[in-house]
Amino acid sequence: MTAYYNGLVLQSAGARPSVAELRRPEVGPGQVRVAVRAAGVCHSDLSMVNGTIRPSYPLVLGHEAAGEVVEVGANVTRAAVGDRVVLNWQPACRTCWFCENGEPWLCSTSSGVASLENGVTLDDEPVHVALGLGAFAEQVVAPENAVIKVPSALEFEVAALLSCGVLTGAGAVRNTARVRSGESVVVIGLGGVGLSVVAAARAAGASDVIAVDVSEAKKGLAEAAGATDFVVSSDALSKEIRTRTSGRGADHAFECVGRAATIRAAWRATRRGGQVTVVGMGSNDDLVQLSALDIFSSARTLRSSVYGSADPDLEIPRLAEDVLTGRLSLNHLITNRITLAEVPDAFDQMSRGEGARSVVTI
Ligand code: APR
Ligand code: ZN
What does the UniProt keyword field contain (predicted)? Predict the structure, then answer.
């Protein structure tokens, strides 16, 4: 393998990312090298480009990916050369307080939204890798606990989607909100994450799944994912939802945009005693305003769902099995297959609210 490989590098917030030749790091003890075969364009990548979140730069973008293990370091036991794997941007240490408390998605040793230096260099200067991975690249070096083995029958493109958008959306429904059969659900924001929420809510037996987006063009995708209703977002949204839920509001609302305004819309769309689950990752300076009386008297629950409140080591193989047995269909989520150099155009499309997932295939 050559010492250089291509990756998509962002020099600073607001800049246009471009493909650069990176120098690959050595694989240290406990690490593996993965040849990336597919990587999805997730809104969290766009949030790093447009400055909604600001990790360190220069930065190799990308975190929703799958590939093949091509090299393993000393003492690696979890993976072998040739394994098909999904990358996990929140690998659990299994020893911190949160992991021992059964909340590996909150692992305190994981990088979270921060970015790491892991030995990758560009023109002899260190570069950071997004969410500890930097997966818009021909290869990734990661600790062995950041790879999860999946069956070789699972297509790389589908495997990539499992690693972030699908796990996040399905986990929010199953683990965080625990949607039950017969409940009504509103989903605001129909990208890869929101559409995964729609599909999981239907699979959980929700009677009504009301899909909401600013873009009318999302209607067909919402229906393909299993939505029973589609509503274009407007100032009259809560009234519209009430009309469709016996005047009460929905049992659940999922916010899959990452903005204060849509968190408020989700709040207002639920019934008294309902549950609002925030799945979108917003910015630090976008404040949600709710009155103290409203919080008390509406008796609603507001909580967030980080990485689907899931243990990816357990749930990714289950989701893979669901895809292989036909219980879960994800093909409608992939609306664009692109090259690394085309990712900036995919960000532009995402900013305009077009399509579901663009997937880089390598
Ligand atoms: N009301 C309703 N829908 C909206 C609004 C709004 N005010 N603003 C944007 N949207 C829609 C967009 O039209 C788009 O369809 O939200 C959707 C967001 O989809 P993507 O950009 O594809 O984002 P996705 O990758 O699904 O991530 C959603 O979850 O993990 C987080 O960081 C991620 O915050 C992001 C969110
Ligand atoms: Zn993501």
Answer: Metal-binding, Oxidoreductase, Zinc
Mutate-to-test residue for ligand 1 from 41, 43, 235, highest number of ligand atoms within 8 A of CB: 43
Residues with pLDDT less than 50, the chain? none
Pocket of ligand 1, beta carbon within 6 A: 42-44, 47, 165, 168, 188-194, 212-215, 218, 233, 256-258, 261-262, 279-281, 350, 353
Mind listing the pLDDT tens digit for each residue in 125-154?
Answer: 889 999 999 999 999 999 999 999 999 999
Encoded amino acid at 279, one letter = V
Number of the ligand closest to the Cα of 281: 1
Q: How many CB atoms lie within 10 A of CB 67?
A: 27
Whether pTM exceeds 0.80: yes
Distance 43 CA to ligand 2 centre (A): 6
Q: How close is the Cα of 165 to the center of ligand 1, in Å?
A: 11
Closest residue by CA, ligand 1 atom 10: 189
pLDDT digits (tens, 9 = 90+) for 26-83: 999 999 999 999 999 999 999 999 998 888 899 999 999 999 999 999 999 999 999 9
3-class secondary structure for 150-173? CCCCCCHHHHHHHHHHHHHHHHHH
Specify the long-range contacts of residues 174-177, CB closer than 8 Å, at least 24 apart. 174/200, 174/204, 174/308, 175/305, 175/308, 175/309, 175/310, 176/277, 176/303, 176/304, 176/305, 176/308, 176/309, 177/252, 177/254, 177/275, 177/277, 177/305
Q: Is 174 helix (H, G, I), strand (E, B) or coil?
A: helix
Instruction: Tell me how far the alpha carbon of residue 35 lies from the centroid of ligand 2, in angstroms.
Output: 19
- Given the cut 0.90, state whether the ipTM is greater than it: yes
Q: Whose CA is nearest to atom 13 of ligand 1?
A: 353
Q: How far is CA 252 from CA 17, 170, 176, 211, 271, in A?
A: 37, 14, 11, 12, 8
